[in-house]
Design a protein that fits this description.
The protein is built from 13 helices and eleven strands. Strands 1-3-2-4-5-6 form a six-stranded mixed beta sheet. The chain has 328 residues and is α/β, with parallel strands linked by helices. The longest helix has 20 residues. It folds into two domains: 149 residues, 3-Layer(aba) Sandwich (Cytidine Deaminase, domain 2), CATH 3.40.140.10; 147 residues, Cytidine Deaminase, domain 2. The structure holds zinc ion. The site of zinc ion has 6 residues, from α3.
């Protein structure tokens, strides 16, 4: 985004920050992307903002799980000392996926929203998610998005982006015990590869209803300097864009973190398979409450000891990078 009029660590007034979000929104549009953009900043004494990261929706590039807000998180990279005091400014009201990423995973508490026209969710939900929403109407941002979203040529892409399947979807696969063992062996190998590369030992697979693995990854937060790249998200992004996540299963060596949970809540993933819940259970019960099949395997101490050892050797702050702020 070299042609933008600002760069990381520039210090802008709040009005200029909002115009900068519009600039990123137009930049996305110019690249054929959905015009939703975000900037993450730190509020300085005197009310000006230091720009820490910016980005936009990437679905038109075939990358699921990167909304405007997540694009800004990717652009920001990891920050020592945590994210609690940062401010996320978004061109559109953050959806529950982005709320989970910003608030429950990173711990960002303040979200500024620059569109009061196109998407007006129940904003008390933001408070339930631990977010204070501040809504300001930026007319150029509202007009840019309204024009895009009301154009019927964009309907399929938009539905995919917000997790609405445009066709019939089949049920996720009912795996045999043997199939489950093979899948979890593979996820476990990914966990170990991640560990060797300085990540938490958690592996993830996305498997379709035919039993084919369409995405696989360890966590990639260190490797890509992207705080949103937990194992489930990295595997999902590797799977590419589809609109039928209901026939897909997310396989995880350990319970789903808040970002992985939102893949069920927002994008309708069909089934969860977890290797072990003894060390980290995460949002397993929340996925059950969404009425999705959940299989918790008992992979024994080999799988547990790996994560236990990592947690013993790493700080709570490091663990929260992968498991969300609820991790003590
Ligand atoms: Zn979103």
């Amino acid at each position: 985004m070299s042609e933008l009029s600002f760069k990381k660590h520039d210090i802008l007034s709040e009005g200029d920050l909002d115009d900068a979000v519009h600039e990123v929104q137009l930049h996305a549009l110019g690249k054929g992307m959905i015009p939703i953009a975000g900037i993450i900043s730190r509020l300085l004494p005197g009310g000006r903002h230091e720009i820490l990261g910016f980005g936009h929706n990437e679905l038109a590039d075939g990358v699921p799980g990167v909304h405007g807000e997540t694009g800004a998180v990717k652009g920001m990279g990891r920050i020592q000392g945590g994210y609690a005091d940062l401010i996320a400014t978004s061109s559109l009201s953050p959806c529950p996926f982005c709320q989970c990423t910003l608030a429950r995973h990173l711990g960002i508490k303040t979200v500024r929203i620059l569109d009061d026209l196109n998407y007006r969710p129940d904003r008390s939900d933001y408070q339930k998610a631990g977010i204070t929403p501040i809504v300001r109407s930026h007319q150029k941002i509202e007009q840019t998005f309204a024009k895009w979203v009301n154009d019927s040529r964009h309907e399929t892409l938009w539905k995919r982006d917000i997790g609405i399947s445009s066709g019939p979807t089949s049920a996720p696969r009912r795996f045999t015990t043997e199939e489950l063992a093979v899948l979890m062996d593979r996820a476990d190998r990914l966990a170990r590869e991640g560990l060797a590369q300085g990540e938490i030992p958690i592996g993830a697979l996305i498997v379709d209803d035919l039993g084919q693995v369409v995405g696989a990854s360890s966590a990639r937060i260190v490797a890509t300097n992207d705080p949103s790249s937990v194992a489930a998200m990295a595997a999902w992004r590797a799977a590419g864009s589809r609109d039928d996540w209901g026939r897909h299963t997310l396989v995880l060596t350990h319970g789903p973190d808040p970002i992985a949970y939102s893949m069920f809540k927002v994008f309708g993933f069909g089934q969860l398979i977890v290797g072990s819940n003894r060390i980290y259970e995460g949002s397993t019960d929340e996925v059950r409450r969404l009425d999705r099949p959940v299989v918790v395997m008992d992979r024994g101490p080999q799988c547990d000891d790996l994560l236990k050892g990592w947690l013993r050797e790493n700080s709570a702050e490091r663990a929260q990078e992968y498991l969300g702020t609820a991790w003590r």
